[in-house]
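Hey L., structure's done. Input below.
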Amino acid sequence: MAEQYAIAIDIGTSGIRAQSYNLTTGKTISTAITLRHPLPGANVVDHLHFALNIGRETAHNILITTINRVIANLDIDLNKVERLAVCGNPIQLSLFNNIEIRDLAFWGENALKEKNIIPPSRRGKILNPQAIGLDINPNAQIYIPPAIKHEIGADALAMLYKSEALEKDEYSLIIDFGTNAEMALIADGEIYTASAAAGPAIEGQNIEKGRLASPGVICDINEEEMFWRMKILNDNLIVEDGDLIDPVNGKVIKKSDIQAKGITGTGVIAAFSLGSDDKIIKDGKIKNTIYLQDGVYLKEKDISNIGKALGAFRAGQITLAESADILLDEIESVYMAGASGFYVDAKKSLNIGQIPPGPQQVYQIGNTSLAMAKDIVLNPELLGELQKLADKIESNHIISRIVAM
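Output:
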């Protein structure tokens, strides 16, 4: 029997991630990513504004052209792709699907009526590649998971589904550690959602020497012998020991064989945590420079940007807790979603207030959008189950408040 393939795609604010799978064995074959989103801007609102200004059709074509390039780099026979599933927030999936986006730009029924905007259906659907413009087997099926409401997308559903937090009787907080920092607080049978403007600093952007996760970036830092040991991604994105550095003056205590080219968001979180412990950072400020490896450093502006991102996380968490009429320290479990949420050291996130104090359990569940897309292509019947879950959440009014930060 000829080999058949499936593809899962996560359209994130900072870039696109795709994986291919063998449909017979379910094993992952290859992964391809972009290091930025093809539309200009540092956040999803920028992408929406661009699409509104230049035209939805043009924005759709730019996005699909990039996705076609990404899947072409998966190194599989695209004519043998039987299924493809895509996940992301409502703006990204609307642009992918080339449907109305103006309802996502204006708030309230009166505004929509005044502008004669009819919100489209964002229920789960199955399309063909020609309807999207994808360069794969024309007989393949394209799966688009449902949004819960037009402003609460498939990415939020993925967090809830993959964390399994809805099945537990406890106060749980789920956070996607990305540019928009989507959050969901589950308390007393209700779900409170928010999106906090954490900004691209959490992805290593808006940092002078910052980069998205890629070969040569500092992804973590540990204290060792009173100095800082750099942790760097190699060409296979596997973490290796970098130099041992004195962060105050940049002196190399022990040299490694790997070169540093920049620092990603998880590395910035680690530097902020260690810098706070070592009193290099005081009240969110530094005197001069924090020296890392091979000319990579953090300046005062960088520390300020990550401080703003941390403030957005905390503001979102406090708002959710107040909406649910609980205290932050009553939260029993925290689920860290997103690639950054998986790779960052949870203790360091706790140390600097990126997650609330005192949870009994912290789970790192990774890129739930990509994981749910994978689940769908390996088990297509799941799309119907996800629609039932979305309908149940909405019809039971389980989401009682949406907090836009």
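The two ends are 52 Å apart (CA to CA). The chain has a mean pLDDT of 89.

-- N.
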